[in-house]
């Protein structure tokens, strides 16, 4: 009878021969894995906030590992998170600078910019045939949103409409909207020239 593959692997692991690279690497992975698991457990057991933070980081790590081959999507998600955080910072700065009078506008601006950042993410992935890189489109839209959110520290009421306008222009430029408008204009011009050419030939 031939030995089972599982028993053979177990014997290789227990012997730890220097020439057996597989067994040596497996031992290192087990040791580092146990040390990492103990560290995570020790940090999570200190307080409830630490437990929530560790769980959130673990979920984020699993998501990043699952999307490791989706570079554009990772870039877009990272840009969206950074934009949401910086927009919230600008809104709080505007509220501190303006006092209670600007509190309502800054609060609305935070939710408005979160909605606009999600619109940028969806607007880059909804078109089936996107001419450029979708993650780069989201980054450009988020840069425009950050610039307009900084305007909100001075004029809170105008920041969200400016952000929506800039977001629309970026999505139209990167999504082929301007090219479609140019093609439509060219068709209309050609159709307008046809009756004029026909009238000249009739003369």
Description:
- The chain is an all-alpha fold and 203 residues long.
- The chain is 83% helix and 0% strand.
- The chain is built from eight helices and no strands.
Short description, anyone?
The protein is an all-alpha fold. Helix content is 83%, strand content 0%. The longest helix has 28 residues, at 71-98.
Low-confidence runs (pLDDT<50, min 5 residues)? none
Compute the CA-based radius of gyration: 29 Å
Mean pLDDT score: 75
What structural class do helix, strand and pairing data support?
mainly alpha
Amount of beta strand: under 5%
Question: Which key features would you list for this structure?
Answer:
mainly alpha; 83% helix; 203 residues; flat
Give the secondary structure arrangement, pairings included.
Blueprint (H helix, E strand, L loop, with lengths): L4 H11 L5 H24 L3 H19 L4 H28 L4 H23 L8 H18 L4 H19 L2 H26 L1
Helix pairs in contact: 1-2, 4-5, 4-6, 5-6, 5-7, 6-7
């Amino acid at each position: 009878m031939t030995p089972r593959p599982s028993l053979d692997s177990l014997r290789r692991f227990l012997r730890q021969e220097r020439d057996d690279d597989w067994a040596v690497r497996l031992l290192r992975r087990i040791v580092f894995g146990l040390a990492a698991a103990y560290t995570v457990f020790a940090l999570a057991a200190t307080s409830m906030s630490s437990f929530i933070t560790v769980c959130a980081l673990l979920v984020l790590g699993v998501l990043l590992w699952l999307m490791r081959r989706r570079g554009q999507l990772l870039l877009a998600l990272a840009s969206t998170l950074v934009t949401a955080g910086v927009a919230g910072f600008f809104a709080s700065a505007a509220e501190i600078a303006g006092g209670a009078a600007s509190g309502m506008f800054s609060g609305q601006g935070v939710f408005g910019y979160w909605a606009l950042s999600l619109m940028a993410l969806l607007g880059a992935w909804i078109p089936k045939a996107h001419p450029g890189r979708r993650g780069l489109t989201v980054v450009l839209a988020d840069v425009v949103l950050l610039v307009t959110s900084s305007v909100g520290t001075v004029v809170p009421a105008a920041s969200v409409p400016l952000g929506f306008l800039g977001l629309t222009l970026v999505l139209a430029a990167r999504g082929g909207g301007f090219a479609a408008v140019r093609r439509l204009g060219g068709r209309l011009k050609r159709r307008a020239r046809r009756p004029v050419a026909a009238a000249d030939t009739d003369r």
